[in-house]
Design brief:
The complex is a heterodimer of chains A (about 190) and B (about 450). With about 190 residues, chain A is mostly helical. Chain A has helices at about 1-15, 20-35, 40-65, 75-95, 115-135, 135-155, 160-190. In chain A, about 50% of the residues are buried. Chain B is mainly α and about 450 residues long. Classes of the chains: A mainly alpha (about 190), B mainly alpha (about 450).
Chain lengths: ~190, ~450
């Protein structure tokens, strides 16, 4: 699952067309939430999947045609290297230091939350790297959505009213996508003027 | 407390549907804000539950919601009557709903998520005539800063909530530093203010007033509430480095903001940098972790928000009427007067209610260290110089006969805000007591039983 998240993130990061970016983001989001799947209720899964679908659809529609997008160029490699090193650093500093029993499985349950935390750190690091190197709203929106997805994974590990958290963060994801699409349309209008 | 949030949220949807009929959308928005305000004022201070989240109408929540919703109502009135912008009405209502949610929720992650919604909603109002100015770029920068700071902050709060308590102190220091930097990004504290500088010169005055008059104070109160509710305060107190970081960011913002205000020639920038300088002072107040410091910080934040609303609306009215010429009081005397009296709130001059906040924070800063106290006094003096320069620049030329401008909405709004600040200054107890109740909670959270 972690590999799927990483590959989908690289695909979204490397896409030159916004529509491919949107589809790849949907892949990232669904793969990320599958990691926490067994722990989540049906309502939470439905909410996160709907939010991911709506966010991807908003970006897809904002592209208006199949060619529109932003070539990442060297930014792809910088973002990947920064994300990989930051993920390792974050995992070292912020992972629990107790001698708890850590079990990692290829598929299914993640009782110690290790895979989920690693995926969250990877998404946050990738999002930061993309957002900081973005030239405009196309990659900026992708960075913002990836960061938020990473933050959502961490929130799922917190004890508390998970359905309310999921509802709030799903709304937030849709608003981030809508604002991103609005900015993409404005940026395009400026470029074409 | 869910009722006013639902009222404003539903009203935002209705206002979005009717937004192009200004004569309907304007009064509808004002009415919805007044109903929500009445509900907040008349509700008992109790806790309700929604989907497992607790919403508590604390004294500070009641005071803050009332002041910020009143500011929103004044902004909507100005946009409706003086500066038509149809996107503003649903934005103001949705922002109002998010502001009440921020001030009443009791779970740090939920507060943070509601805050991010509030900060992202105005992106639509920031852009106008995008091919003639850089408003689209300014809106994008704001979006990036909010997304970056917001996601980092939520992640840090989630980690703080899920990690076992027996962590090395370094882990908590790192998390608190991330939260502080995340808020500094959203508060436009110096050196994280580049988006604010671009916003100040490129976006419509009403949208700028929404951001600096309503949302920035909400962000600051959210910061104080999250610190109180997250359980991180004892860790902050035990490690002096975090307190030093907060004081450092606050002092740099106070001095930097006031220097930038002094060097500005645009009225909007003077107002925006004055707010940043005041927020720096407020950050120092919070960082002292003392009762007077916290009371002063929240008071400064709320009053600076009201002052920013007053000054930015006035600056917008003067600029619109001056056209391509240098902004001058001759075209809008009442708006100019509103700008000048807004400066009194920014410098914390008595008898306005702005005075106690500045007095408390500067006093406690001197007790912390002489250098810190002096830095804050210098910051206030520089803001005073900046405001005087701005006043002199708009009143430089005088017509043969002063004539009140047509539709003096910004002037009337400025007068209303000034009267409210004077009333608060004459009777400060009603304003300071709810803030003091919050300061008590903050101090209790420093030393859990």
């Amino acid at each position: 699952m972690l590999g799927l998240v990483a590959v989908a993130t690289l695909a979204a990061n490397g896409a030159r067309q916004l529509r491919y970016t949107a589809i790849a983001f949907l892949g990232v989001s669904l793969a990320a939430h599958l990691i926490s799947g067994p722990e989540s209720s049906l309502a939470q899964v439905a909410l996160t999947a709907t939010a991911a679908l709506v966010s991807a659809a908003v970006l897809f529609i904002a592209a208006r045609d199949g060619r529109f997008g932003e070539d990442p160029g060297w930014r792809l490699w910088v973002a990947t290297v920064v994300a990989a090193s930051t993920t390792a650093a974050a995992f070292t500093f912020l992972r629990t230091t107790t001698n708890e029993d850590v079990r990692i499985t290829l598929l299914g349950d993640d009782p110690s939350g290790v895979t989920q935390q690693a995926a969250a750190f990877w998404l946050l690091s990738s999002g930061i790297a993309i957002l900081l190197t973005a030239r405009g709203a196309v990659r900026g929106s992708l960075g913002a959505l990836l960061m938020l997805t990473g933050a959502q994974l961490l929130v799922e590990l917190v004890p508390g009213p998970q359905l309310a958290f999921t509802l709030l963060l799903s709304w937030l994801q849709i608003v981030v996508a809508l604002c991103g699409a609005f900015l993409i349309l404005n940026e395009r209008a400026v470029r074409e003027a | 407390m869910i009722v006013p949030i639902v009222i404003l949220g539903a009203a935002a949807l209705v206002a979005f549907a009717i937004r192009k009929r200004l004569d309907v959308a304007g009064p509808f928005t004002v009415a919805a804000l007044i109903v929500a305000m009445w509900y907040v004022i008349s509700s008992p201070q109790e806790t309700t539950e929604f989907l497992g989240l607790h919403l508590r109408l604390s004294p500070l929540g009641q005071l803050g919601s009332t002041i910020l919703l009143a500011s929103l109502a004044l902004l909507v009135l100005t946009v409706w009557l003086d500066e038509p912008a149809y996107n503003f009405f649903p934005t103001a209502l949705a922002a109002g709903a998010a502001v009440i949610a921020v001030l009443t929720l009791t779970t740090p992650i939920a507060i943070y998520a509601a805050l991010l919604l509030a900060l992202l909603i105005p992106v639509g109002t920031f852009t106008f005539q995008v091919t003639r100015n850089r408003s689209a770029e300014a809106a994008y920068r704001h979006y990036s800063f909010v997304a970056l700071g917001g996601s980092l902050g939520i992640a840090a709060l989630a980690l703080a909530g899920s990690l076992p308590r027996e962590q090395p102190p370094g882990t908590f220091v790192l998390l608190v530093v991330i939260i502080v930097v995340a808020f500094a990004l959203k508060l436009a504290a110096i050196p994280f203010h580049t988006h604010a500088a671009l916003l100040a010169s490129e976006v419509p005055a009403s949208a700028l007033a929404l951001y600096f008059g309503v949302l920035v104070p909400t962000t600051f109160i959210a910061f104080a509430e999250i610190l109180t509710l997250s359980g991180l305060l004892p860790a902050i107190v035990s490690i002096a480095k975090v307190q030093d970081l907060l004081i450092g960011i606050g002092a740099v913002s106070a001095l930097g903001g006031s220097f930038l205000a002094t060097g500005s020639t645009e009225l909007r920038r003077v107002a925006v940098y004055s707010v940043i300088a005041n927020l720096g002072q407020a950050l120092v107040g919070i960082a002292t972790m003392s009762g007077p410091g916290i009371v002063g910080a929240i008071a400064i934040t709320l009053v600076s928000g009201a002052g920013a609303t007053q000054q930015l609306l006035a600056a917008g009215a003067i600029e619109r009427r001056s056209g391509a010429d240098r902004p001058s009081a001759t075209v809008a005397p009442l708006a100019s007067l509103a700008f000048v009296i807004g400066g009194f709130a920014m410098i914390g001059a008595p008898p306005l209610v702005a005075f106690p906040g500045h007095f408390f924070v500067e006093l406690i800063a001197f007790s912390y260290s002489g250098t810190l106290g002096t830095a804050l006094v210098i910051s206030t003096l520089l803001v005073l110089v900046a405001q005087l320069r701005a006043a002199i620049s708009i009143f430089r030329t005088a017509p043969e006969r002063w004539r009140v401008e047509r539709r003096p909405i910004a002037g009337v709004v400025g007068a209303l805000v000034f009267l409210a600040l004077v009333a608060g200054g004459v009777q400060p107890d009603g304003f300071l007591r709810p803030i003091a109740a919050f300061a008590d909670e903050f101090i209790r959270a420093l030393k859990p039983l």
